[in-house]
Amino acid sequence: MQRKSFIEKKTILFLNIAVFLILVFSFIKSLEETKPVKKELKKVLNQLNFLKNENSALQEKIDYLKSKYNLEKEIKKILGLGYEGERYIIVNEETIQLPQEKSFKEKFKDLIKKILP
After folding, report:
1. Does the reported pTM lie above 0.70?
2. Contact 82, 76 (CB under 8 A)
3. What is the tally of structural domains in the chain?
4. How far apart are CA 73 and CA 77, in angstroms?
5. How far is residue 92's CA from residue 66's CA, in Å, rounded to a whole number?
6. Max Cα-Cα span within the chain
7. Torsion over CA: 98, 104, 110, 115 (sign)
8. Domain membership of residue 16 as a residue range
9. Residue 81 near residue 75, CB atoms below 8 Å
């Protein structure tokens, strides 16, 4: 009888271990299956954020163009039109020479000249 009890205990322990391993492998498999879903969800959320930003930018443009003045200004810019007597001057930014920033040494000399007559 004691021998039978020992064998039953071993069998029950073996079955418990088997069930535990099946549950562990099942859990790991379910985690692996959710990885592509999480990746796709992240991709969709990024797309959603992009579209929200784009929507916001378009809404700002709509609000800007609701003004008759701004609408007229943009139409004139796109079509290259103007009122009678208006003239356009096209300036190439590369040909404009902006004044050079003075160095610290030159600024200091100018400051000294202003302080000391």
Report:
1. no
2. yes
3. 1
4. 6
5. 31
6. 119
7. positive
8. 2-115
9. yes
